[in-house]
Amino acid sequence: xxxxxxxxxxxxxxxxxxxxxxxxxxxxxxxxxxxxxxxxxxxxxxxxxxxxxxxxxxxxxxxxxxxxxxxxxxxxxxxxxxxxxxxxxxxxxxxxxxxxxxxxxxxxxxxxxxxxxxxxxxxxxxxxxxxxxxxxxxxxxxxxxxxxxxxxxxxxxxxxxxxxxxxxxxxxxxxxxxxxxxxxxxxxxxxxxxxxxxxxxxxxxxxxxxxxxxxxxxxxxxxxxxxxxxxxxxxxxxxxxxxxxxxxxxxx
Length: 252
Prior knowledge:
mainly beta, nine-stranded mixed sheet, 2 helices, 42% strand
């Protein structure tokens, strides 16, 4: 018998074959939910616990750095899941994957990946992780009626809550990010432009530490190393991204 209730692997891919990192989401039989980018899963992961406590932490395998007394980089409490019949859900994670920052595939074959069609150029694909007490029929019907989100998975948890993961396409403002190497290593540029056709081999994700009641807000960008030069602006997430309360179309 599997020790997990569910194990989902997903990634974004456009028509040209450019991709995001592969992400893994899994739920234990105790009702705790975990989320990690596959290329960093042995180092750090995000967790959303049955108790309501959420963490961004180094894994037990990697351990806490010497400068930290706890493996957790930050902790917060997720918003309480609305009661059944309120036609709402509590969003705990929101990840943006801008299409113009996707990368050429590495060539590594990974089985059982749910490939999600990327938004058109200039847009982004958004992934949401949501706790709810509504039935799968109500969730699917609501999104089908509004034609705004696709549900990747729906899972009943031992806590009498349910979890679903969904995706949708929306606008994105391209703003490039440059990370200086301080003369020790090459700078890293995360840009919608790739003039030397590098394929953007470096991928990062980042976002602010959530406060209690907030959703985890991340964006994932692809980039490449360059020699020192002009700086670029950084892309910021909007207010809509941080809104943890998610209406399920005022389910009927």
